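Exam prep: given the inputs below (a chain plus S-adenosylmethionine), describe the expected output before reading on.
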Amino acid sequence: MGTAHRSHGRVAPHAGGRLRNHHGVMATTGAARIARIGKRYVKPVVSDQVWLTAKTSVRTFLGRRIEDGAPPRGDMHYLDFLRELHTVVQPATYLEIGVRWGSSLALSRTRSLGIDPAYNITSELDLPLRLERTTSDEYFAREDACRWLGGPVEMAFIDGMHLFEYALRDFINVERHSRRSSVIVFDDMLPRTTDEAAREKHTDSWTGDVYHVHEVLRQERPDLTLIVVDTAPTGLLLVTNLDAESTVLEDRYDEFVAAYSSSDPQPVPRRVLDRQGARHPAEVLASPAWEALRAYREASPPLGAVGFPHFESLT
Ligand SMILES: C[S@@+](CC[C@H](N)C(=O)[O-])C[C@H]1O[C@@H](n2cnc3c(N)ncnc32)[C@H](O)[C@@H]1O
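Solution:
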């Protein structure tokens, strides 16, 4: 997201195609461990006990007390939210488009793939990782795309080029490599100003116009589960109940780009700027649906052994 960015960990200079952590220990190469260089508020509808647990957990990881009652909006940084999301989703594989300094990638502990034509890792990484120094379009054009993960993408973060059509293509490509229970996360879905949402970047923090993706998915893919989260600074969108076989977006891609792209200044809808309908991060993390999602994942195949979790309370 734009340039509002947290630095996590220490500088990890790379050498000889491998990453070195702050202990000076090389990330192991090989099948098991590969580091390859180069290439928001709403009353909780979950049970009181779950909500209480969530508040406790939020207090813990924010390192400060949240008063009883409604926490203020947008009080959780997206990286704090993502760290907790990794914990509740427990993905076996993780894909990130747009790595930059590695702050969000460093939250993963599972087999991961990072794609960015200009990454410059300064975060301490501790994960089985493959980095691809290329654009997401080029990467997904490869026949063996995502093969290194050894299975479908179970969690992904789309934070590459901040233009609507790029983010839509990224979603189409990632969904094709996902399973129904996978979770795809978009950054920058809640721009705060018209300037921040411009297609032509002229502000420090830049979301671009990727927020259109939410409307396209809402209108055209009613089968998906969409959850907008009121994180700081510019919101996230979680997507699950995916369908790797769906061709709706691909088939009508040109139509969507023509219909949703507009020139600057972006007429960002009031409801987006006001974050209407966005969910409080702690409520999302406390949803019992995550446990159900993990159970679904573990029980499939055989498909149908357990129903896909309902996120009604969050969507
Ligand atoms: C906002 S930064 C990513 C920040 C990172 N996800 C985090 O939260 O720490 C966006 C990154 O996307 C990369 N990028 C730009 N165009 C891209 C493309 N077409 N494919 C993949 N990455 C791209 C840029 O090089 C930049 O490093």
